[in-house]
């Protein structure tokens, strides 16, 4: 294959990036197999695939963070050898990772200069670096000031600082790994506007995402990965979400699960009455929140992220102490005077899928089988003798990995070495199968592929049908709307109102998320 080919209009168009026969294994796991990929300049190119398909590994190879076992990488038709991210940057490749790498107490300028000690930016001095930031910000409509303190920026703005960092060396290829997972829908739209400007200025943008709607909205072409291989390539205009989902997972996928109407929900399993939480810095983060959740119902919590959802989940889970009002969980009353902790809350039958799986859901340097019993060490999962039964712990993990399709099915693999979606499946498997009476669920499908989303949604509805009382926090409005029986909207730490499933449409919820109360609403 030549690096240059004729376009339909007769003009010559080379590929910004080509991969030929790239392979990568981690021990026995073949993460990338014989990958051939070609990306044109001035296009947005999607990479999709089920969890563990090898997307991040492949992009990390292009960015020099992993070394390929064999195969070729060509940039603008030239063979290059990527041995480090410094190599990649020097060849015009930039990458924005899922987890930002910014120092919050530094300004944008200081963050952008960080890591270039001894490099061109420092020699040019602060003023040259400042001018570069202003130039990039203007050229790509990033609207970022070099003197802003990073801690004052919202998540979308912080991501744009990462984009500036990636572009500062003159990147012609920009890789973004699940960039919208942490963004609000509004911030995601702003990011897409930036990506379109980058495309129009000739940058080749590679976008890893699980959200098929994003692929349809923003990309020009898409490659589909499954089990380490590229199993399809499509021009976006010539495909559909259903076809992409099927190519990814190898079977037809229900993009919205069917939900049965259950008889009226049962007894109240947990409730909050005038609940308030003020942080140690004196910031009121939850204010006068009242609601109840019954057996057999899902109460969805909608809101632009950062409006108290995290604090609410953590107060209910016993991770933070409420400072006003009361909670009643399965008859256990929690007030500001109570000595609560997560152990007490778990012991009454509450299970919790935390929003941040890395910080609160897993111990990354523990093995999968150890993570699969976290919080359940005293249960019969660890055997009945005086000492923990290692065979029982391994068998428990193996069984849950099978039920929840965790890949690879290796109980002794460290949690940190699973792909993001498979890490999430470990947390879900542990908590869902621990017979929850009450379930607190935060962002259950963040970073999870469409097949697994279908599975998780079905499981959530099955638990609800079996009588579990579920509180579901998600930034995905579609997820909230398709699963919840009632929806509570939070804005500025306040309960703006609770609407039934039938009353909930995007417009009503959108207005409520902006703080508009519904008339005559009794929360
Ligand atoms: N450092 C590592 N050591 C061992 N195995 C690894 C390592 N990094 C990735 N893997 C394995 O390689 C495979 C591909 O992982 P990768 O993170 O590339 O998948 P992905 O497609 O990005 O998944 P997700 O959508 O869940 O993020 C997985 O089986 C994963 O467990």
From TrEMBL:
Membrane topology, as annotated: Peripheral membrane protein
Keywords: ATP-binding, Cell membrane, Hydrolase, Membrane, Nucleotide-binding, Repeat, Sugar transport, Translocase, Transport
The enzyme's E.C. designation: 3.6.3.17
Keyword Membrane: yes
Cellular component per GO, a single term: plasma membrane
KW Translocase (keyword) present: yes
PANTHER family: CARBOHYDRATE TRANSPORT ATP-BINDING PROTEIN MG119-RELATED, GUANOSINE IMPORT ATP-BINDING PROTEIN NUPO
Protein name: Ribose import ATP-binding protein RbsA
Gene source species: Roseovarius aestuarii
Biological classification of the source: Bacteria, Pseudomonadati, Pseudomonadota, Alphaproteobacteria, Rhodobacterales
